[in-house]
Amino acid sequence: MARADVLVSADWAESNLNTPGVVFVEVDEDTAAYDVNHLPGAVKLDWKLDLQDPVKRDFVNKEQFEKLLSAKGIANGDTVVLYGGNNNWFAAYAYWYFKLYGHESVKLLDGGRKKWELDGRNLDGERVSRPATAYAAQAQDSSIRAFRDEVIAAIGNKNLVDVRSPDEFSGKLAAPAHLPQEQPHIPGHIPGAVNVPWSKAANEDGTFRSDEELRALYAGVDDAKDTIAYCRIGERSSHTWFALSELLGLRNVKNYDGSWTEYGSLVGVPVERGA
Amino acid sequence: MCGAPAQTPVLPAGVDLSKETVIYGAVSKEGAPVPGAYVRLLDDVEEFVAEVVTSASGDFRFFAAPGAWTLSVLHRDGKARRQVQAAGPGLLEASLQLS
């Protein structure tokens, strides 16, 4: 996997906004951001309403995902270019989610909304509709999604990469600081996890660091072992999953989307606090 | 902690200010609010903690904890940076001007 296969630059995006077979999709934590303005022609996916089961904590199933993408006008053969705010956290999450359901050609816009805005590139508030398709998804690819029992079994055996900020890792903060800190889960991290904050993989403008910088950053992640990345709800760890799996080409990297909100609520599992 | 703030931040329902340490303020340039600025909260060793985008009125807010923090602002019209010290839970106003 080469960088060019999975990342596109803002320049490339700007000159391909109207290219047939290329669909730009915005995914934000702030789901109202798209409604204010977006890349011309881009459609919106709401990470909560569109991608989460409406009742239980899980993703939409294969049929629901097919229905969603068909309604958005995304075809199996389209190249999907994802972008969003928060340094592409939720766009990376959507990237991983598209891969989970087997979409072949999916890329991230390097730097997302942030670089686009800092560059002063054009955004508009036009309503976008695309003709419906008949999208067919694959069964979920379990090789990139970790569940709680596998995570507990991984303690001492696999690489566990906690990508939250050092203050969340140590237990000083219970959530990223744009969210209230009173949370139902306990603070701390999974024993044996290494703390490599997702932010170290990104430049200040939200673009990914170079392959050389990323290799140095993750030098402590032993490629001879399987790796599980986690954060609080699985979106920042998608960003790290993307860096490890898609940019550096490490084998057997999984994202644990249950992440700390699940692990930190489990009864009886081991937890560590402190740096 | 700080003098009476010029304005209070908009907080989600149910936020308990006896428990939450809210660092908030507005980003401005030459007296005018700057919407769409990227405000980062960095910890006491300058490590990234969180980032938000300022609202239409230039406002931002973080839920932090007592301690030393740095705010760093990035916008295509300029940058700004300042350090703040949160003594305890409650509201801490920390506005910034782009230069």
Describe this structure in words.
- The complex is a heterodimer of chains A (275) and B (99).
- Chain A is α/β, with parallel strands linked by helices and 275 residues long.
- Chain A folds into 2 domains: 3-118, 3-Layer(aba) Sandwich (Oxidized Rhodanese, domain 1); 148-263, Oxidized Rhodanese, domain 1.
- Chain A is built from 11 helices and 9 strands.
- In chain A, the strands form 2 sheets. Chain A has a 5-stranded parallel β-sheet with strand order 1-5-4-2-3. In chain A, strands 7-6-8-9 form a 4-stranded parallel β-sheet, covered by helices on one side.
- In chain A, β4, α5 and β5 form a beta-alpha-beta unit.
- In chain A, α5 crosses α10 (236-247).
- Chain A is globular and about 50 Å long.
- The mean pLDDT of chain A is 96.
- By secondary structure, chain B is mainly β.
- Chain B has a single domain, classed as Immunoglobulins (Immunoglobulin-like, Sandwich), CATH 2.60.40.
- Helices cover 0% and strands 53% of the residues of chain B.
- Chain B has no helices and 9 strands.
- The model of chain B is unreliable at 1-6 (pLDDT under 50).
- Chains A and B meet through α6 of A and β4, β5 and β6 of B.
Please specify the SSE layout and strand pairing:
The complex is a heterodimer of chains A (275) and B (99).
Chain A: H1 3-6, E1 7-8, H2 10-15, E2 22-26, H3 33-36, E3 43-44, H4 62-72, E4 79-83, H5 89-100, E5 106-109, H6 112-118, H7 148-154, E6 159-162, H8 166-170, E7 194-195, H9 211-217, E8 227-230, H10 236-247, E9 253-255, H11 259-263
Parallel strand pairs in A: 1-5, 2-3, 2-4, 4-5, 6-7, 6-8, 8-9
Helix pairs in contact in A: 5-10
Chain B: E1 21-29, E2 32-33, E3 38-42, E4 48-53, E5 59-64, E6 67-75, E7 78-86, E8 90-93, E9 96-97
Parallel strand pairs in B: 1-8, 1-9
Antiparallel strand pairs in B: 1-2, 1-5, 3-4, 3-6, 6-7
